[in-house]
Fold these 2 entries.
Entry 1:
Amino acid sequence: MNLIVMKDYNEISRQAALLVAASIALKPNLVLGLPTGRTPVQMYKELVLIHRNGFVDFKNVVTFNLDEYVNLPRKNPNSYYSYMQKNFFRHVNVRKENIHIPDGMAKNIKEECTRYEELIRAKGPIDLMILGIGHNGHIGFNEPSDEFVPETHIESLTEKTRIANSKYFGSLSKVPAKAITMGLGTIMHSKKIILLASGRDKAETIKRAISGNITPRFPASVLRLHRDCTFIIDKEAAEMIKK
Ligand code: PGA
């Protein structure tokens, strides 16, 4: 696992955007795994800017989002579908048919998980996976658990995650209880993984991801077993790493 520590949130966002753009320059039909949440917002802004300046073309890029809430209509502003339209897809030229986000409103959610996993297998492997990290070490919505769940599946969100996300929904009761998420195996099959983290509130999380036990109780720890995974984090998030 590689570690890059940069000055602040803007720097890590720009670095991540440049990495995505460079990967697309090298492989125009890149298969790109995408996260949501607070952390990647600025990376998406930077990517939109790079695109507007004519330095990146998403025409042949294929995207797979990590996760989506179950039972939250796409048009709800808190769905990850809406998030992706607002922050990224509306502003760039990724083809509609190349955008893949799990359907949290599917009649049969289990079947939807299987469909999504098979689609990733058919179109993948994911060349570049961008991740955020939850305070409890979750990646995608892979919550702390007794075992690593390899494939796309339904996850019951922990109280901690629902509280963290309630800031977007206005109240805890409105946060969906379940989500569809790529599994840890789905993520680990990506050729290259970049994890972004920013801020002092992620310092303890990053310390555990880098130096704690590799355990499903802290899902991000598994990334240490990947052969091409880089954490790009700012100084505040790096504060608790032993020098
Ligand atoms: P955040 O979420 O970027 O909003 O902190 C990260 C995550 O939960 O994966």
Entry 2:
Amino acid sequence: MSAIKLAIVGVGKIVHDQHLPAIAANPDYQLIASASRNHTVDGIPGFKSIEEMLAQMPEIEAVSLCMPPQYRYSAAHAALTAGKHVFLEKPPGATLSEVADLEALAASKGLTLFTSWHSRYAPGVQPAKAFLAANAPASMHVIWKEDVRHWHPNQDWIWQAGGLGVFDPGINALSIVTEILPERIFLSGASLEFPDNREAPIAADLHFQSAGALRVHAEFDWRQTGKQSWDVLVETAKGQVKLSDGGSRLWIDGVEQPLEKEAEYPSLYRVFADLVKAGKSDVDVAPLRHVADAFMLGKRKVVDAFHD
Ligand code: NAP
């Protein structure tokens, strides 16, 4: 099969940090265009909108949609309607129903839809999953605390309804949790803290349970200065599993495990190419469903206004 003629839509931080290097290093892709209102990618034609790009470059076979989640559905709908395979950045959309609609549209057209969850490809995740498959978890504690001013400067969309606030990083933790746990969990209680002047939460405290005895506590906070935490701690009869740095380091019973080197986005693009070749989709909304449940069940507390 010849290289997939790919276009990228919504050129911002993650496109430059991760998508462009991963695509350039993968011979399964030829990046031939971009669409973004204000930004372009050096060396390829740039269009102001996906509609204009699809009309002028019918040879495009697939698109990666990297704009904020509130604006992803209409672009994905336009791409699928035009017969293109679609890679969705995380979170896959602003609502569960719009992702279900895209899934049905992709299936009806025989196209690939991929809900990418990059943190699941952190090198410690599969070894942790394998250990927990053999050693049942008794409890889990997730601590995802970072400084929003450092990681998300000038990103207004993240504070707007549908931008998810602290769940934008927190959903990465939930993508790991839902990947490594051997049993399903569901939200049993939550509290969300909303700055007085924002539409999305700055902190969340979540409690989950399984049908059995498993309990999961997750703390997300965007006000963390100093040491940043992206940790998942799991207690088992054979000791503690500790995933740190977003899944890139792993300790089991106090012993750090040797891991492959980090390759989250190269892995995502490998999986997407495999899906396209196989004529399949991979649509997993489990992390987004937990976030939706938190907005549905969570108690709301208004806290101090947040200023950049
Ligand atoms: P970003 O830097 O704000 O870039 C998003 C781009 O989307 C913007 O540069 C903008 O380009 C375009 N866009 C289209 N419609 C927009 C609108 N109405 N409002 C704002 N921008 C719009 O954001 P990002 O950090 O790359 O994040 C994009 C997605 O990737 C998010 O879903 C995020 O969760 C995910 N992600 C981000 C990271 C990270 O480290 N930043 C990591 C993993 C995943 P134009 O102005 O040219 O249209």
